[in-house]
Amino acid sequence: MEQMPIVLRFVHNFTVKEKFLGFVNCDSGLTGQVLAEKIESAVRTWNLDPEKWRGQGYDGAANMAGRLNGCAAVIQRQHPQAVYMHCSSHALNLCVMATSQTALVSNMWSTLREASLFFENSPKRQQKLEAVINDMPAELLNDSRKLKLQSLCRTRWVQRHTALVSFADFYLAAVATFEEIAGDRAGWNADTCNMASSLLRAITDFSFLATFSVVSNLMAYIQGLSIGLQEKSLDACRAYNQVSSVQKTLEDIRSKVNTYHATWYQEAADMAASVNVEPSMPRTCGRQRGRDNVPATTPEEYFRRAVSIPLLDELLEQFTRRFGPLQQKIGKGMSLMPSVLLANPVQAKADIMSFAAEIEDDLPAGCNL
User: What pTM was computed for the model?
Assistant: First the structure.
């Protein structure tokens, strides 16, 4: 039987708090109408007044966020001030997931997943990796205390940055381990040797290294935002400010993409040099569907046009699409800030009056905006 958790978010003594209320059995269906009725019934059972709802947040599933028949829409028709807001952390997760559709990025993630599973699924292989790590000079390892590659989270894409950092720490150890296993057919079965050989070719391919470097650097800018958006005390204004700050940073990177990409490319070239691999770009031809076939004269130019620019453009488009409603909802209230009010008094006044009309019932008696 499906169950739905309900969490209450409220303000107490000017402090935002969250409290888990319980699970509700969804034994009569999962449509928006049914779920809305279940939520309201549960809230009334806990002696809470639905008329005091001032917000509701879910993921982006159609039965929850559908514009006409989603749970949020059904509740808001009955309680107009219970404004729906898509979970910001989940929206960020969708932004990152959408950027992983290009062939080079998708292949990079697949290779990382296969490499981590290679060791995760076999204690013997993991022991071999640990032995190689212990035999390597400390200066070749960024953190000698770690002995295991971080696996990729299937659902929380923004948490994959941890896996990227882990792989970078143990890149040389992983290459050495794959080389030893692939060359030791007496000590390992044929399937394991073949898998090791295949993974060795994959992680020493310069397309993988260049894509890995670009994605790692961009994910680093998003990681902090991911952590911030999961704070219990986070309010809409702070979420707006955090998202806007990261978005402006990405816009700045996009405007100076040549400079940033040159740094990322050099990091990839350094990783390649550590395993005696020369920078190169995939072969292109007239008709090609399974590869990012962009014109370029050098590997640096190719990966800038095939990875860095498309990735940044997609990220910025996703930020605008996923967080645009958040900015619209916060924007009118932000007009109360002196800096906004003085910058455009006419528009600010119109926004303030519109905002006041929406929260009129919550204003203290006699208050006049």
Answer: 0.76
